[in-house]
Automatic annotation (TrEMBL), chain A:
Lineage of source species: Bacteria, Pseudomonadati, Bacteroidota, Cytophagia, Cytophagales
Signal peptide (from-to): 1-21
Annotated protein name in UniProt: Uncharacterized protein
Assigned keywords, A-Z: Signal
Entry superkingdom: Bacteria
Organism: Cecembia rubra
UniProtKB/TrEMBL annotation, chain B:
Protein name as it appears in the record: Nucleoid-structuring protein H-NS
Disordered: annotated span: 54-77
Lineage, uppermost ranks: Bacteria, Pseudomonadati, Bacteroidota, Cytophagia, Cytophagales
Biased composition (Pro residues): 56-74
């Protein structure tokens, strides 16, 4: 009897291994499409941050964009904030970060992200998710017209990316899609 | 000696030939007549051929079938018209530099849909008939996305309309 049980276990493990290997079989073109999709989400976030931070953005628009930006993140994700005036890096939940960004005490705020690229390619994890890291450079410029106070800095930030295959129902059909979620955004460098 | 012999034989030959030639001149009127007759026949033939070259009477007009008008260009379907309009809206929203103008265009475009929550599927890749999708969104979110990001990366690859001609589902695809 023991012999049969061990044989059954062996067969089960072999089947599981084959199915995992098959599901991991993603062609380079398909992987490229997923990489591009994830990178596009980061670029979208850069646009959203620029809109939220801009003093020209209407309140209702900024709130709507905050909702869209928040949807890009995994639950509980945090954003690092640094300054040339202090050594510590503060971390805020993304929604709190957006609200603070919108309320910054400047008359003009200009935020641009550039040189957005992978520093660690998306790799499949044992749980089936793909995880990678994208780095970005952020140029921040805040101007106060009355006090003439200007603040500028450039920060390098690393963003963890999670990509997972999910399913949803659309008009009675099951649609499989790639869900891209941004994780914590860590500040790695701050310069003038 | 040989020369003398040769000269003699030539003279003999001449004597032999002369009477023959005379006989021919006796028969010449007959051959002249024959020749004339031949010429006459040839001339008649020539006249005949000239007649052939002369412009023939115009053939009786053959009734030509009336030229069929070119087949009318097939009328664009309701789906094709909707796709054209929507592509214009998408471009207009993505290129808009004024938020209010973009919002007006968004409201106009939303009028084409059964509701603002109409699903929008975006195909990011297709291989062996299997489509890879981005996370499904709604038309309202997608139109605002075009306004916020100012990029129109997709084209309409499939559209579904209801009985009132309103869009009930949209499938987009990444432009190459």
């Amino acid at each position: 009897m023991k012999k049969y049980i061990s044989l059954f276990l062996l067969l089960f493990l072999a089947t599981a291994a084959v199915s995992v290997a098959q599901s991991d079989n993603i062609s380079p073109a398909r992987k490229q499409a997923i990489d591009s999709l994830a990178l596009e989400k980061v670029k979208d976030l850069s646009k959203y941050i620029s809109i939220i931070g801009s003093k020209e953005t209407q309140f209702s628009e900024a709130n709507r964009v905050m909702d869209r930006a928040e949807e890009l993140f995994a639950p509980g994700a945090e954003m690092g904030v640094s300054s040339l005036n202090r050594k510590e890096i503060a971390y805020y939940k993304v929604r709190r970060y957006f609200e603070r960004l919108m309320a910054l005490n400047y008359d003009r705020v200009n935020i641009t992200w550039y040189d957005i690229h992978y520093i660690s390619d998306l790799e499949r994890q044992p749980d089936g998710r793909y995880v990678g890291v994208v780095t970005v450079y952020q140029r921040f410029e805040g101007t106060s017209l009355e006090s003439g106070l200007n603040y500028r800095d450039t920060t390098k930030k690393d963003i963890t990316i999670y990509v997972e295959k999910k399913q949803t129902q659309i008009a009675g059909r099951t649609i499989e899609f790639w869900d891209v979620m941004l994780g914590d955004i860590r500040v790695t460098e701050t310069s003038a | 000696m040989l020369f003398v012999q040769y000269g003699l034989s030539q003279r003999k030959n001449k004597q032999f030939i002369k009477p023959k030639m005379k006989r021919r001149t006796i028969q010449s009127p007959v051959s002249t007549l024959l020749t004339l007759a031949l010429f006459g026949l040839l001339a008649m033939g020539a006249c005949k051929s000239k007649k052939k070259v002369a412009p023939a009477p115009a053939p009786a007009p053959v009734e030509q079938p009336a030229p069929t008008p070119p087949p009318a260009a097939p009328q664009p379907s309701a789906e094709e018209i909707a796709v054209g309009k929507l592509e214009n809206y998408f471009n207009s929203i993505a290129q808009s530099t004024n938020v209010d103008a973009a919002n007006r265009t968004i409201n106009e475009a939303l009028g084409m849909f059964s509701n603002s929550q109409t699903p929008v599927l975006i195909v990011i890749h297709q291989e062996n008939g299997i489509k890879d999708y981005d996370e499904p969104t709604t038309i309202e979110k997608y139109l605002h996305y075009l306004k916020d990001t100012k990029k129109n990366l997709n084209f309409i690859s499939d559209i579904r309309l209801d009985g009132n001609g309103r869009v009930t589902e949209l499938e987009l695809r990444r432009k190459k």
